[in-house]
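Lab notebook, design round three. We kept the backbone fixed and only want residue identities now. Task for the bench partner: fill in a sequence for the structure below.
Input structure tokens:
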């Protein structure tokens, strides 16, 4: 009986850069041969519409296959599907189950997402104290976005003694990790210290990374800053937002 060759991840990555359709075909062959990492990867391609037509139902199917085969990131992404109704009806309680499974396997994104579920009361009662502990665990694992949110706990004294210096250090570390929220929070700190030029540079790094729902409030806040430098950045954020939401015209 023939065996399927192990997935050549380096080749897949090269193809994703040059011929994403070929990469998707390669992953589909491996996924159909029950290679769980390929199933998780293929699920992400279907979710992003990269190399394939975007199909959240297909993404859900492949994440399910890989999650049940024990792939931690697939568990996390299956949780994301249930949280955000990607290919299914939203089910916060089931999302939390899969985040816990991913976290139990020490996946930092699973830990972070559990913190968010607890902080926002999705699938469970709001428990900010527990959320703080989960954010702390994710930070200990080096999770850049968790650093931003834990920074807010210290800045505002949520469940911990308020400590502005610790909050600002967490924002700085989050920014260094490339998280768009961290970049914006650290930019706010630098602007408050009188370094609007450095703040503007960080904000320009954040704009291409931020989702549409974040850019609108960001632009509004920058417009109200009273800084000509930051108002100019607000215009860039608005332009980016318009490009993201503009309808796609047929050829």
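Proposed sequence:
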């Amino acid at each position: 009986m023939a065996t399927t060759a192990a997935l050549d991840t380096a080749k897949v990555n090269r193809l994703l850069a040059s011929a994403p359709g070929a990469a998707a075909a390669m992953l589909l062959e491996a996924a159909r041969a029950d290679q769980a990492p390929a199933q998780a990867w293929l699920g992400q391609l279907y979710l992003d519409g990269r190399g394939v037509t975007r199909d959240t139902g297909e993404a859900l199917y492949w994440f399910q296959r890989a999650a049940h085969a024990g792939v931690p990131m697939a568990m996390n992404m299956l949780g994301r599907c249930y949280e955000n109704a990607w290919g299914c009806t939203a089910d916060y309680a089931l999302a939390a189950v899969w985040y816990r499974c991913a976290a139990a396997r020490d996946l930092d994104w699973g830990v972070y997402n559990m913190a968010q579920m607890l902080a926002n009361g999705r699938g469970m009662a709001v428990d900010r104290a527990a959320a703080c502990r989960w954010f702390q665990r994710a930070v200990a694992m080096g999770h850049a976005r968790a650093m931003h949110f834990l920074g807010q706990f210290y800045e505002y004294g949520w469940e911990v003694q308020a400590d502005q210096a610790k909050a600002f250090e967490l924002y700085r570390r989050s920014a260094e990790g490339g998280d768009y929220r961290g970049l914006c929070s650290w930019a706010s700190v630098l602007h408050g210290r009188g370094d609007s030029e450095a703040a503007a540079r960080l904000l320009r790094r954040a704009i291409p990374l931020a989702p549409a729902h974040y850019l609108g409030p960001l632009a509004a806040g920058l417009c109200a800053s009273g800084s000509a430098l930051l108002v100019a950045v607000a215009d860039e954020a608005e332009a980016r937002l318009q490009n993201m939401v503009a309808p796609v015209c047929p050829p």
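Keep this in mind before ordering anything: The two ends are 48 Å apart (CA to CA).
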